[in-house]
């Protein structure tokens, strides 16, 4: 009998210990599910005040509200984004250090022979926050007024036209080179040190063409100083519904889109990435963000990690092939 009582007592004690251990483990799981527990750092490879910086800060504010912790912006410009990207790639994969990036992420990887990080293996996609389709504009003094006339003129007069960009390796440069190779015409590239001087010479007629954005081009189109030839987006813009996409004009599938996205260090837990992506999706639907961005031709997206991963995987070989075909090299 004594042995039975002792056995029952030991059994009850073991049951209590097992239950307690279960509570501890459950508590640990609950703590892990409470990400974030402290502020998140969002590193931007650009100076403060630019369009990408503004979009990043708007989304950071909305995502902070959803996550319950502040997202602190850190501008770490330099080396074409390599410095900021490398810093995030080497940060702890805990969701507290993130990268805001653009097509520069895939372009730099295509144009440079080596980087201190692998653009696919060392960073995990989180979400595309927004997209800015480029527009192809021409000087009002150009010898054509439509996209079709431009192609026809360029084919009949090879090497007589030129186009401006903000510099070698920028999105307007590589997206224009992609277009030229698709239509099979020769137009000289004139790189400038920034978008502002490039626009100045376009308006003056020094150059005839430029890939630009709706926000900077539309006032000049409205006053007759520029001609809108087409939009490099997937679909027509609500702001200029009569302007066809370049895809519609004979180049199916052609895109020139400035995407703005968040990435995390590789190895960041999927639950953390999913929570960040969900917060970005909710921010992209916020009425004040939608209204503010769309008036300047920016489309809020709030996409999934899988969609961003597919985008990067598609762009890397595209820009590598283009760099080889057009002999594009960064100095």
Mind explaining what this structure looks like?
The protein is of the alpha/beta class. It has two domains: 40-131 and 258-326, D-Maltodextrin-Binding Protein, domain 2, CATH 3.40.190; 135-231, Periplasmic binding protein-like II (D-Maltodextrin-Binding Protein, domain 2, 3-Layer(aba) Sandwich). Helix content is 46%, strand content 18%. It is built from eleven helices and eleven strands. Strands 2-1-3-10-4-11 form a six-stranded mixed beta sheet, with helices on both faces. Helix 2 (51-67) crosses helix 9 (270-284) and helix 4 (104-111) packs parallel to helix 11 (305-326). The protein is globular. The termini are far apart.
Layout of strands and helices, then pairs:
Blueprint: H1 2-32, E1 40-44, H2 51-67, E2 71-75, H3 82-89, E3 97-101, H4 104-111, E4 123-133, E5 135-139, H5 147-156, E6 162-165, H6 171-183, E7 188-191, H7 195-204, E8 209-212, H8 214-222, E9 226-231, E10 257-265, H9 270-284, H10 287-294, E11 299-300, H11 305-326
Parallel strand pairs: 1-2, 1-3, 6-7, 6-8
Antiparallel strand pairs: 3-10, 4-10, 4-11, 5-8, 5-9
Helix pairs in contact: 2-9, 4-11
List keywords for this structure.
five-stranded mixed beta sheet, D-Maltodextrin-Binding Protein, domain 2, 331 residues, alpha/beta, 18% strand, 2 domains, six-stranded mixed beta sheet, disordered N terminus, single chain
- CATH third-level topology of the largest domain: D-Maltodextrin-Binding Protein, domain 2
Overall 3D geometry? globular
Total count of strands: 11
Mean pLDDT: 91
CATH architecture annotation of the largest domain:
3-Layer(aba) Sandwich
Number of helices: 11
CATH class of the largest domain: Alpha Beta
Q: Specify the structural class.
A: alpha/beta
